Description:
With 980 residues, the protein is mainly β. It is 5% helix and 50% strand.
Amino acid sequence: MTCRFLVRVFALSVALSALSTAAHAQSSITGMVRDTSGGVLPGVTVEAASPALIEKTRSAVTDGEGVYRIIDLRPGLYTVTFTLTGFSSVRREAIDLPASFTATVSVEMTVGSLEETVTVSGQPPLVDVNNTAARTIVSKEVVEAIPAARLATALTSLLPGVQTLGLGDPVGRQQLQIAIHGSRSGEQTTTIDGFSNRMGRGVGGAFSTFYNNQASVQEISVQTSGGNAEQQFAGIWTNIIPKEGGNSFSGYLFGAYASHAMSSSNLNDELRSRGIQDVAGLKKLWDFDPAAGGRLIRDKLWFYSSYRTSLVSQYRAGIYYNLNPLAFTYQPDLSRPAFVTVTDGDYNTRLTAQLTPRNKVVLYHDLQPHVVRHRNFDSLTSPEATTYTPYQPNYFTQAIWKSPVTSRLMLDAGVGGTNVDYNTRLQSGQEDGLVVVPGTMSFTEQSTGMIYRAPLIPPSDQSPAHHRNAQYTIKASVTYVTGSHAVKGGFHLLKGSVTDSYDYGDVQATLLNGVPRSLTLAATPIQNTGRVNHEIGLYIQDQWTVKRMTLNAGLRYDGLNNQTDAVDLPAGRFVPARSFPAVKNIPDWHDVNPRFGVSYDLFGNGRTAVKFGVNRFVAGVGGMGLTQDNHPVSTSVQTVTRNWTDSNGNFFPDCDLANPLLNGECAQVSNLNFGKNNPNATRYDQDVLQGWGKRNYNWEVAAAIQRALTDRVSATFGYYRRWYGNVTATDNLDVTPADYDPFCITVPKDSRLPDGGGNRQCGYANVSVAKFGQVHNYITLRGEDNFGLSTEIYNGFDLTANARLPSGSQVSGGVSLGRTATNTCGVVDSPQEALFCEVTPPFQPNIKAQGVYVLPWYGVQVAAAIQNVPGAQITATYTATNAEIAPSLGRNLSSGTNGTVALPIIQPGTMYEDRQTQLDMRLSKRFRVQRMRILGSVDIFNVLNLAGIDAVNINYGPSWLRPTRIQGSRYVKFSTQIDF
């Protein structure tokens, strides 16, 4: 199906059908106008005025049902005026309109003259009775008040039900992968004014390197469930609404600082008993962030610009510099704990031009040079095995045009793009003087998993490489509003490319207890390019209000077509020059996704809404990754292993590595097709790669009741269910379940294991000797008649509340109780796949709350954020030897008498670390010096100085349950903000 055909289909749909609600970044004001007898009043002119609008006012007229709707409004304070000949005018003041919110403002008009105006002031609405999507608005005031890292994902992670690794990242070192209600972290989306800033490799996913600059943020809108047809993925949708400036010049200056001397130690006896001798403490943090905005031409052209420079440096528990980086064994230098440092710059400018009363243009550019000095830093990687990684260039650009042609017709179009180029390099003395010479062989110690001496060889993500990512998106929409009816249709088109180049490193060694065992060789140089020919979204949706009920019905088409580019690779150390052809249509997916929701104003007063929605979404993962996995370079034999017997103990392979056959200390390589096309490469069923409805997808069902308990307090109770479809299976065509022999083992005795261990565990299987090493994988869709269905189903409940108290105080939070149950019990190849195949974890509450309280004296403000989340899941992988297995198996392992097998010995979803709690607090005081407003703050993170465990070593043995990631220790940060 061609793009031209799809565009024609879409145009016909728009002509014949209704369209949809406002864009994700937009807000609206709607309501009904009646006379004092209760009769509806058509023809009333409704005008919304606000300093947030460059054109000052936006208007609409009530329809035959007395309903009006004003769309595409910026967040801010509004005054809404109602006028009709023969009636007194009514003015509603102080309507505080947040982002992505539809405020219901209904009035009664009395007979009188136009000169008479009735002014009504009151609390802004708390309940959106029109939209079914669940959204949380993080206002500028909350962004500036809550103790949290200055990143959108860090603020989002504080919302009830949002899941991330442990307690997130309170220092702001990295963007977080977040999920909610059973979604996958790859399905999260972050946008700036509705445009995604994901990288090219994030097509079909959500990978982003952009760290939002809080100085340029007006509000943050977070959608956690539901959504209209304009939304592509089901996961958390975070939209950043930038500041625009105004007719008056204004400025902003933020500075923050913290050091290691301002942090504590949360090392305790529990951690010491589990092998941890230091803590994940802060090394250094600073942030400098000025901004300014105002008019270039009054009421015509505004600007807002900001600059940021920041640094975060953090220790990680349990990892140290290598005492001798060139030694053949890793020896920790206990006087030098290892750390990671991230530096960020930001230069952005936004221009807003009101070209004519009905034509508005926004231009925005954000340049972010970003450097990670120890990329892939973790507890099992020595600093010399990390990479120095600058992201340069790294920018996001957009241009948006909006035209309210009439009070009923709105046109909207724009283009946005990202360019991310990051080069992972060997350490060459930056910051800590650590230098790794090209050609240094990387070592991995199997007994501990420690990587040292140099980074891993390609094509690992940990190896030095050059990654280039570029994409652009074109969007357009048309909206028609009659008051009770709002219709919208539009499209987005994304194109982009990802190129990965590896030309460093071709040999790495594996040791066991300090003794060399094997070598891995890489067919460098390696390069592949995946190209997004088009990612198309066409949508059509209708929002229709009938008395108290608002229906939201939509339909969305998603199409994704990728390809790989042809590539010619020069000869390497072990391989000749090679050429690989281009491959098209990997994947070529087409999906139609219905969306439906209904919201009912239960009592007709805008204070109680009952909502229900059911929506289908394409999954946010699998696009570009699938393309690169199927690149002919990727399916060639890129690496091989060969046994290495270090006879003379010099830790150097005394053999001709270019000779693939047995020679000297080196055995024959594991695959003689090294560097060539792989005849046994993994193949994909065409039903996985191409066709209608073949992409991984999920359905979401949401039901909720939202109630304004008072003029300042609202609460929401919701039920959520999600399930995934089009799950794939990997079938080795060279074997069947009959080619495997069963065996049992005796689990080690250990009080930490279920029932103390020592039990006989069966259900394992080993492939026959005749079939050992025969692999010809085929990836296909699972179904009732094809290996059996694989299910992934989430069920959960949320109870949340929001209170806006006098004097600017606010409190919000709640509890989310849910779980994702999976079943993968259909056997594909090995009968062992049925072991622990059904996972039904317990319901575990996720509790989060935050609040800002303004003390009634001296302008002092106290803010706090608290989280209480489940602890890390505990599993165990036991490495069993041939001697342990052979008596039950009735023969030796197919890999030989020296073979070992890694076996799971704990049912997943049954054991967890203790729950984790973190309390962060901020104490602030405001000053005013002439036109300047000064806010001085002291933040205390992890006030209770707890040491929760985020992740543990799952390899059963001396290091089992040793924490690999723990909660950061308490630290204090000082900051100052100046507004003028």
